[in-house]
Design goal:
This protein is an alpha+beta fold. The chain contains eight helices and eleven strands. Helix 2 packs antiparallel against helix 3 (about 75-100). It starts with a helix and ends with a strand.
Length: about 250
């Protein structure tokens, strides 16, 4: 049996690094991040800029996720249901808080959650914060943004090329805001040496796909430092957050 085949039977461990910064223009950092490598849970939340109390919204989401404390014995289904239940509860909480404090003004945040359980990975998200996976030297976007361009692409109204050339800060789903919360979910496998990147739009709007891919080597700490340094060397007109996660055989 080859070494590559043998690796498929080893449990995985994860190392992660997080960075978040207000950027070069914003006065307040409305992003919030979480890294729980023991529990296999990582989160980026981006408070909706220009709306009321985006920093409160993102912090509330991350605190709710941090309280889950997943450990061995929690099944994948149980973990997914717990995440969904907490985010739905936060959605209701933020809407109630908005009615009390801001007469119903929008208090919301995007969220992207990466959950790892054994060799299974799950992405849950609302909005345009992203999860990427680097495998075999190729960077792939796992999530799809919830914005008008992506929605039109999904129903075939525009082409992929048209979607890539369009730029929009409008999102069509968020935690908080108005109405019900609809989360997207994708289940995928995790291989030894897979590298994952969660980030807010302040990162991928500043760096191209090729730029991001070019920084994804070395330790998680080094990768996170390079990504943040590269972003802040540019305009960085938005808050910038990233979580870098590396899978390795135990």
């Amino acid at each position: 049996m080859s070494e590559a085949t043998n690796l498929q039977h080893y449990p995985l461990i994860f190392a992660s690094a997080v960075r978040t910064d207000r950027g070069n223009v914003r006065r307040v950092n409305e992003d919030a991040v979480l890294a729980d490598s023991v529990g296999g849970l990582w989160v980026v939340a981006d408070g909706m800029c220009g709306h009321e109390a985006g920093d409160h919204a993102s912090k509330t989401v991350v605190e709710a996720m941090a309280s889950l404390k997943f450990r061995a014995g929690h099944s994948l289904i149980d973990r997914i249901e717990s995440i969904e239940d907490r985010l739905l509860a936060v959605n209701d909480e933020l809407q109630a808080w908005s009615r009390e404090k801001f007469s119903g003004g929008t208090v919301g945040t995007t969220v992207v959650v990466f959950l790892a359980c054994d060799r299974h990975g799950v992405a849950l998200w609302a909005g345009d914060s992203r999860l990427y996976r680097l495998r075999g030297g190729k960077l792939e976007q796992i999530t799809r943004d919830h914005n008008p361009m992506s929605d039109l692409l999904d129903v075939g109204e525009i082409t992929e090329a048209e979607a890539l050339t369009a730029d929009t800060n409008v999102i069509t789903r968020a935690v908080g805001g108005h109405g019900s919360l609809y989360l997207d979910l994708i289940l995928f496998d995790i291989e030894p040496s897979d590298l994952f990147l969660l980030c807010s739009d302040g990162l991928y709007r500043e760096l191209s796909h090729a730029d991001i891919e070019g920084h994804l080597s070395g330790t998680t700490e080094r990768i996170a430092d390079r990504l943040m340094t590269s972003c802040l060397a540019g305009v960085a007109q938005d808050n910038v957050s990233c979580v870098v996660v590396q899978a390795t055989p135990a």
